[in-house]
């Protein structure tokens, strides 16, 4: 693995944050800071047949594993490359059949255990931070997280104990699952669709900021870290752990719940974007603060319910429309909770192939997104990309090209000009000439 960019950074003790990563030279906007191959990774079940299990390449002519007939590969080389990890699932999938259903986290942890058994040296993924150094925060876990952890351990034993001899004891597994939950990454495509889960130790070294100066994107199973702000020598390198759409209180709540710290970044201390994110309608009789807070609480509950029940999209369609109407009586269309519900409604329209409906929601979302998110945001690029492809599908050529060009301007910085996603979008634009 070429250590491109790694010599421009160093591990250090960050004040009030513990260990972190800082620059030892200047990085320009769009420059690759470093790349990190996954220590271990797993393709999500929903993408089987569409992406190669080994390299995550998206193509239509994949061939399946002859034994389990569930894993797909580009060629024999990819199949051989994946076999050390796939073999522990292949036999189990054949044995369990339709009852094979471990969670993605359980599958990832099983692969990490196998990797640790055959790898004793520092890997190319651990140039600055070893996986075993990951924080677990076991002392901060509440009873709900502990129960989830125990359920994962039980599932690991159920699905893998016959195929992995001498699993670590429960104490070691408890720590490993906690480490993965705090330090794992979701690999996503250019439209932010979930492709899989992975651990990237060197990437996990970076601390969080709600105004990050780098962004993490993926080239297959390699994480690439690029500057989205000018970074000078001596400055700490910050990633964002969460969706930055929401106001300070929500972001801090999410960070505390998932990562066990209270964010004190400049964005959180100044709350500079909160007013715009929480815009309410200008009514003759303005809503009372309690009424607004009640609607915020309601919106948060709805968001959580939809997150858990998103596979019932056809049932949720009418619910989302009524919820939009209820929230719209108080919240402006630029309010982040309204935007979230419109995004959900857009997803339902796409699922139901209501292209005009999806386009209508996308048009309402994209401009407020551009205001609320940082300049080089994957969320904004993804929305322009979806909207551009919808326009082209609906034969709105000029609007489609404009939207794709706006997506491309962000992607060339976030993904790099040589990324295959960038090349795909360029081809889509050229095809319209």
Explained architecture:
This protein has helices at 76-96, 104-118, 143-160, 170-183, 201-204, 248-259, 266-270, 274-277, 289-308, 313-328, 336-351, 355-372, 378-393, 397-414, 420-430; strands at residues 9-14, 18-23, 32-37, 40-43, 63-64, 72-73, 185-188, 194-199, 207-208, 214-219, 222-227, 238-239. Residues 1-5 have low confidence and may be disordered. The protein is built from 15 helices and twelve strands. It has a domain at 273-344: Serine Threonine Protein Phosphatase 5, Tetratricopeptide repeat. The strands form five sheets. Strands 3-11-10 form a three-stranded antiparallel beta sheet. With 433 residues, it is an alpha+beta fold. The chain is globular. It is 48% helix and 12% strand. Its EC number is 2.1.1.354. It is an enzyme of class 2 (transferase). Residues 52-90 form the MYND-type domain. Pfam families: SET, zf-MYND. It catalyses: L-lysyl(4)-[histone H3] + 3 S-adenosyl-L-methionine = N(6),N(6),N(6)-trimethyl-L-lysyl(4)-[histone H3] + 3 S-adenosyl-L-homocysteine + 3 H(+); L-lysyl-[protein] + S-adenosyl-L-methionine = N(6)-methyl-L-lysyl-[protein] + S-adenosyl-L-homocysteine + H(+).
């Amino acid at each position: 693995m070429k250590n491109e960019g790694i010599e421009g950074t160093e591990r250090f003790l960050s004040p009030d944050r513990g260990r972190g990563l800082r620059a030892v030279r200047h990085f320009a906007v769009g420059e690759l800071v470093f790349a990190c191959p996954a220590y271990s990774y797993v393709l999500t079940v929903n993408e089987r047949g569409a992406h190669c299990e080994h390299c995550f390449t998206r193509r239509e002519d994949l061939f399946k594993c002859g034994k389990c007939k569930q894993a797909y590969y580009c060629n024999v080389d990819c199949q051989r490359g994946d076999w050390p990890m796939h073999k522990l699932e292949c036999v189990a999938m054949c044995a369990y059949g339709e009852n094979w259903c471990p969670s993605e986290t359980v599958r990832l942890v099983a692969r990490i255990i196998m990797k640790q058994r055959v790898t004793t040296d520092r890997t190319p993924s651990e140039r600055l931070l070893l996986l075993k150094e990951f924080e677990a925060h076991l002392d901060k876990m509440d009873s709900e997280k502990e129960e989830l952890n125990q359920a994962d351990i039980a599932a690991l034993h159920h699905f893998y104990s016959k195929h992995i001899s001498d699993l670590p004891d429960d104490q070691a597994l408890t720590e490993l699952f906690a480490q993965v939950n705090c330090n794992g990454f979701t690999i996503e495509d250019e439209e932010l669709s979930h492709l899989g889960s992975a651990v990237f130790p060197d990437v996990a070294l970076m601390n969080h900021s709600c105004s990050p100066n780098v962004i993490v994107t993926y080239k297959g199973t390699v994480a690439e870290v690029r500057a989205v702000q000018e970074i000078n020598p001596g400055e700490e390198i910050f990633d964002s752990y969460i969706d930055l759409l929401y106001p300070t209180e929500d972001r801090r709540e999410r960070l505390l719940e998932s990562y066990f710290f209270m964010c004190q970044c400049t964005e959180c201390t100044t709350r500079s974007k909160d007013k715009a994110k929480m815009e309410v309608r200008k009514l003759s009789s303005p809503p009372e603060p309690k009424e607004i807070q009640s609607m915020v609480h309601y919106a948060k509950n709805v968001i959580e319910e939809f997150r858990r029940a998103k596979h019932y999209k056809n049932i949720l369609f009418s619910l989302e429309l009524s919820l939009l109407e209820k929230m719209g009586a108080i919240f402006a269309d630029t309010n982040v909770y309204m935007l979230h519900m419109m995004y959900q409604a857009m997803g339902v329209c796409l699922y139901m192939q209501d292209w005009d409906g999806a386009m209508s929601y996308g048009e309402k979302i994209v401009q407020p997104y551009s205001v609320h998110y940082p300049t080089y945001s994957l969320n904004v690029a993804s929305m322009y990309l979806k909207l551009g492809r919808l326009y082209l599908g609906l034969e709105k050529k000029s609007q489609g090209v404009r939207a794709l060009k706006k997506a491309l301007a962000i992607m060339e910085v976030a993904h790099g000009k040589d990324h295959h996603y960038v090349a795909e979008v360029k081809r889509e634009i050229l095809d319209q000439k």
